[in-house]
Write a structure and sequence with these properties.
Number of strands: 3
Radius of gyration: 19 Å
Strand order of the largest sheet: 1-3-2
Number of helices: 8
Oligomer: single chain
Order of helices and strands: HHHHEHHEEHH
Helix content: 55-70%
Strand content: 5-15%
Shape: elongated
Distance between the termini: 26 Å
């Protein structure tokens, strides 16, 4: 974890909502959902950067690990291209970076394979990711978390938006 001041302050200060319930009901969901997304993604990306990874590199490693025969590169890109703002070219680029770093290899058939070094890094970061998830979910039980996701998904549906995560 980083030792930046906001993280330290967040650990010292108990959570209190920004407004009363009566005031929160009129707060803009666009602002709060965006603020939550930005804060959580920043927290995750900071943790990954401490391990020398970008978020799309982490996604690629997770798509390849556990596949002894490797994964078809085009298939991995297809699964991940809709994630956040990266698109297919961003996933391709980050896959190339992982290959250049020796964390993945690519065979002549376009299948990518995780190396021993890549697998070791993935396991190490997966352990840290579990701790990071616990930090993000502190004080939020599973029922409350599921309810929040359903509310956000319903709002996306209500405005004709599309979102998907595997």
């Amino acid at each position: 974890m980083t030792n930046d001041t906001s993280t330290i302050e967040a650990a010292k200060t108990p959570f209190t909502p920004s407004h009363s319930d009566a005031e929160l009901v009129n707060q803009p969901i666009g602002y709060w959902s965006s603020a939550a997304g930005q804060a959580v993604v920043h927290h995750i990306r900071t943790m990954l950067a401490e391990h020398g990874l970008t978020q799309p590199q982490w996604w690629v490693l997770n798509q390849v690990i556990g596949h002894d025969g490797g994964r078809d590169r085009a298939e991995v890109v297809d699964v991940l291209r809709g994630y956040l703002e990266f698109g297919a070219s961003g996933i391709e680029h980050n896959t190339d970076v992982l290959i250049a770093r020796g964390l993945l290899t690519q065979d002549g058939d376009g299948r990518i394979h995780i190396t021993a070094e890549g697998a070791a890094l993935q396991r190490k970061v997966a352990e840290q990711q579990g701790r990071t998830r616990d930090e993000i979910h502190e004080g939020i039980d599973d029922e409350e978390y599921v309810r929040a996701l359903k509310v956000l998904q319903r709002m996306i549906h209500n405005v004709g938006g599309r979102a998907w995560h595997h």
